[in-house]
Write a structure and sequence with these properties.
The chain is of the alpha/beta class and 311 residues long. It has eleven helices and twelve strands. Helices cover 36% and strands 20% of the residues.
């Protein structure tokens, strides 16, 4: 299958690059269209939007794909989406979106034939707002070819993320030491944790998960309604159990208590963390069960099958 994959290059989640790598490993022909470049001055990028969009559309037309798939669908610049949507005889234009949106997204949403959301709450919002495109729930996925080598595990939980007020309040309340990685984490209130403030290279994240007892997950309260983020899936590449805040979509992807540990408040989080420290065999069992589920149900190939059956 020929897929023209569109998205933001070098984002902190590496979603675009992981999708490209995984789909190529599945045997698909994939060409890339970059709509955002974090290293480029925002003003210059905006000024160049139209010629860059025209060039992308021309490359897509020459490739003649079976599918145009836009990662981060509702936040791609409209200039690019309009060019892709207007290609003569074009294939289906599909967006895969993971962040919250408001009514201002209608202009982009109405250009798609299908919108897939990683969050069931966003599916409901799409419907409530009366967007024209069809939509479906499609969780994040893992690049199953990205499994890191085994390594000794530190007996502590790791959290790799950017800070938000909600996340900071949670980690301040965790009593056992955490290893925290990510940009803009100040040490105030976190003296009992190991804080590594700074951007983490995407290629290093898998190794951080593989080298720790468990992976903490705290939703970004600014972007997520009910959905899981990539941190819900990627740790299982190394059979590292995920300890996550309670979200409505968890049970749609993993079995709570057997494949993932769920907490509803910081008392439950502290109790669960203490149990993992006392019972490392429990961490291994949950990590292995989650890995089996990941490889069975949560690869990019399986997500593509779902999309194509919906078209």
């Amino acid at each position: 299958m020929k897929i023209f994959l569109v998205g933001k290059s070098a984002s902190i989640t590496h979603w675009f690059e992981d999708a490209a790598s995984a789909l190529r490993a599945e045997g698909h022909a994939v060409r890339l269209g970059v709509v955002r470049r974090p290293w480029l001055n925002a003003g210059l990028e905006a000024a160049l939007a139209q010629p860059l969009a025209a060039d992308m559309a021309a490359r897509a037309a020459r490739f003649d794909p079976d599918l145009v798939l836009v990662i981060g669908g509702l936040h791609a610049p409209t200039a690019f989406l309009e060019r892709l949507a207007s290609l003569p005889g074009r294939p289906p234009l599909v967006g895969w979106a993971g962040d919250a949106f408001d009514a201002g997204a209608r202009r982009a949403a109405d250009l798609y034939d299908l919108l897939a959301y990683t969050d069931s709450g966003l599916v409901a919002r799409h419907t409530e707002m009366g967007f024209a495109a069809r939509c479906l729930f499609l969780p994040h996925a893992a690049n199953l070819g990205k499994s890191p080598a085994e390594r000794p595990r530190a007996l502590r939980m790791v959290f790799v993320a950017t800070p938000t007020p909600g996340r900071r309040a949670v980690v301040e309340a965790v009593t056992a030491p955490l290893a925290i990685f990510g940009p803009a984490w100040g040490a105030e209130g976190l003296a009992h944790h190991q804080v590594h403030a700074g951007r983490v290279a995407p290629g290093d994240v898998a190794g951080l998960y593989a080298g720790h007892l468990a992976a903490l997950n705290i939703r970004n309260e600014c972007n997520v309604l009910h959905g899981l983020n990539q941190r819900s899936f990627d740790p299982y590449l190394s059979a590292t159990p995920v300890v996550t805040d309670d979200q409505a979509d968890i049970a749609l992807c993993f079995e709570p208590g057997a494949e993932v540990l769920v907490w509803r408040d910081t008392d439950e989080l502290n109790a669960g963390y203490d149990r993992l420290l006392r019972e490392p065999d429990l961490a291994r069992r949950i990590g292995q069960a989650g890995k089996r589920r990941l490889f069975a149900d949560h690869g990019f190939g399986r997500r593509l099958e779902t999309l194509m059956s919906a078209l």
